[in-house]
Write a structure and sequence with these properties.
It is built from 9 helices and 7 strands, in the order βαβααβαβαβαβααβα. It is of the alpha/beta class and 210 residues long.
Length: 210
Amino acid sequence: MSEKFVINIGRQLGSGGHLIGEELSRQLGIPLYDKELIELASKESGLSKEFFEQMDEKKTHSIFGGFFGLRNSSVDEIYPNESYLCNETLFKIQSDVIRELAEKQSCIFIGRCADYVLKDHPRAVNIFITADIEDRIKRVSETYHLTSRDKALAYIKKMDKKRAGYYNYYTDKKWGVAESYHLCMNSSVLGIEKTVAFVRRFAEEKLGPL
C-alpha cells in the first residue's frame, strides 16, 4: 500500500472544485472533507457546531478576528480562563482536526486553508480550481436556484471575496494566486472529467503511484 497523501483543493465558487474533489475521492478510494470538518471539530472539542459555523470560511472576517459571545458548559470546562472563544481559537481546533485526519489516512480537503495547515506534510498536493465566468454563472445558477445572471454573478463575487478574506487572514499566502499552490487549473478548458484526470496525473507525477 502506498504512503499516506493529501490533496488540498482551493476553488472559486462555481468552478467545479468540489465536483473534482468528489470524483478524485471516488477514484482513489479516499475520504473527502469539507463541511464535515465542522462536525468533526465540534465532536473533538465538545463545543457546539454553532461556534464553528460562525467562523466558517464563507463568513466575513475582520482584521481583528472577532469574538463570539456564545457560552455553554463545554466552553468553561475546556477553556476555564476564557469567557469567549475567538476566531483564532476555533481555527486552531479545526486545524488540529485536519492534521489528525491527514496523519491517520490519505484524504482530500476542500478549502479550510488545508494547504496552509498541512504545509509541513511531506506528501501533499495543493490545487486551485478556477473556471470561465460564464461556466461559473451557469453552475451557480443551477446549484443555488438563482433566477438571473446578475444575481448569480453578484453571489459569485460575494462568496469569492469571503473565501479570499478567510484564506488571506489565516495564512501567509494569497487566495487564488499561483505561487500559493502547486497547480492552478481552469476547469473550463478541459471540462470536469478531464480536469480530474489531469489533477490525478499531476499528483502521481509529484508523489508516485496513488
